Each structure stands twice: as structure tokens, then as C-alpha cells.
Amino acid sequence: MALFEWKDEYLLGLESLDFEHKDLFQCINDLYEQCGIQAEGDELEDCLGQLHARLAAHFALEESAMREMKNPHYEAHKAEHDRFLEEVTEVVASFRSDSGGEHVEAFAIRVKEWILIHITTTDRQLVTRGR
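Request: output the structure for the sequence above.
Response:
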């Protein structure tokens, strides 16, 4: 069962970012599904690593688009990305050190909530105030 479903209301109208956001939804759902089937440590670690890599790549793409648009909110937006990526990095490192699989499901929910809020507020500013 998926943790959350993509809705067209999340679309920003920036094709590359909308594609990335949909991909992040799938990655989070995959991680949540792995938790639900009691995946082995290696499988969970792979999911966490993929999530980290996708978030880092997505944030780089989004920040590049903001620089190209000369978005006045770039610094604050990048700082938000940096803080969240640091949180993800800490969870991945913690999992690797103690294989804390029981915390991965709660973390998937945390990522879902952060992504939804980020897309519908901060990212929305890219199209409403940043152009």
C-alpha cells in the first residue's frame, strides 16, 4: 500500500521539477513498502541510499533552476534543502551503524510530510513569486 499518492494539485508547472517530485513520491513509497514487508537490512539500506541520492540530485536541479530564474528566495530555499538533507544523512548514517530498521517507517512518514509541505509552500513560491 502506498504511503501517499501524487495529485495534480502538487504540479508547479515546471516540467523537470514536477517529474522529479513524482519520482520522489515513488521513492518514498518504495521505502515505505520495504518497511511493510519487513525487508532485510541491506534492502532498507539500499532504499535509504536511493532516497538520499534522489533528494540530493533533486535539490541540485531545483537550486539550479532558481539561480537561472534569479529567484530572490534562493538562499532561504537552499538553506531549507541543506537542513533537510542533513537530517536524511544522519538517518542513513544511524541506520548503517545500528541497522535501526524499526525507525525507517517513521522516517518515511517524516519525509512524506516534509516533501508535501515543501512542494505546496516553498516550491510553490518558485512559480508565484520567484519569476
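The longest helix spans residues 41-68.
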